Amino acid sequence: MQDRSIRLAIVVAEFNYDVTYLMLQRALSHAKFLGVDVPLVVKVPGSFEIPLAASKLAERPDVDAVVTLGAVIKGETKHDESVASQVFRKIMDISLDSNKPVTVGIIGPGASHEQAVDRIEEYAVRAVESAVKMVRRLRSLEEVKEVGETVTVE
């Protein structure tokens, strides 16, 4: 099912770029497979900076959804847990505040580099897939005018 009217923006972290570069390539490929446009890709230094760029993109009228890509890899401290926790919380806030899907394709916390490499395709594809599904479902939801019997939006 193709829908050229869906426009995604992608925010990708440069930290752990050996992982996130491949995530970006998989995300772009999957968007093309689904027939949606990706007119904007914004690179940020790390996952911590993703929410600011995602917020700016979500404000744009020419963006229907924002896909976030990053890899928060476990080190010797619990720094990865605090970074990921705050980033995930802010991404959810941005989605709710903008009324647009902002999807999470961020590996971690607690992932080793090897685990991150193993999850590249899964996380990238899932984030794009979720963004496209949510745009379509929110559009369908807007078309529901009256509810008498149960209506399932899918």
Please identify the top-level CATH class.
Answer: Alpha Beta
Overall mean confidence score, pLDDT: 94
The radius of gyration over CA amounts to 16 Å
Instruction: Give helix and strand order, one letter per element, not per position.
Output: EHEHEHEH
User: Count of DSSP helices?
Assistant: 4
CATH-derived architecture: 3-Layer(aba) Sandwich
Give the helix/strand class: alpha/beta
Categorize the overall geometry.
Answer: globular
Number of domains: 1
Number of strands: 4
CATH superfamily placement = Lumazine/riboflavin synthase
Distance between the termini: 13 Å
The low-confidence parts are none
Give the strand content.
Answer: 15-25%
Described by strand count, sense and barrel closure, the largest sheet is: 4 strands, parallel
What is the CATH topology classification name? Rossmann fold
Range of helix content: 40-55%
- What strand order characterises the main sheet? 2-1-3-4
Could you characterize the architecture of this molecule?
The structure is a single chain. By secondary structure, the chain is an alpha/beta fold. The protein has a single domain, classed as Lumazine/riboflavin synthase (Rossmann fold, 3-Layer(aba) Sandwich), CATH 3.40.50. It has 4 helices and 4 strands, in the order βαβαβαβα. It has helices at residues 17-34, 50-58, 79-98, 113-143; strands at 7-13, 37-44, 65-73, 102-111. It has a 4-stranded parallel sheet with strand order 2-1-3-4, sandwiched between helices. Helix 3 (79-98) links the parallel strand 3 and strand 4 (102-111). Helix 1 (17-34) runs parallel beside helix 4 and helix 2 (50-58) packs parallel to helix 3 (79-98). The longest helix is centred in the last third of the chain and has 31 residues, at 113-143. It is globular and about 55 Å long. It comes from Sulfodiicoccus acidiphilus. This is 6,7-dimethyl-8-ribityllumazine synthase. One of its GO terms (molecular function) is 6,7-dimethyl-8-ribityllumazine synthase activity. Catalyzes the formation of 6,7-dimethyl-8-ribityllumazine by condensation of 5-amino-6-(D-ribitylamino)uracil with 3,4-dihydroxy-2-butanone 4-phosphate. This is the penultimate step in the biosynthesis of riboflavin. InterPro entries: LS (IPR034964), LS/RS (IPR002180), LS/RS_sf (IPR036467).
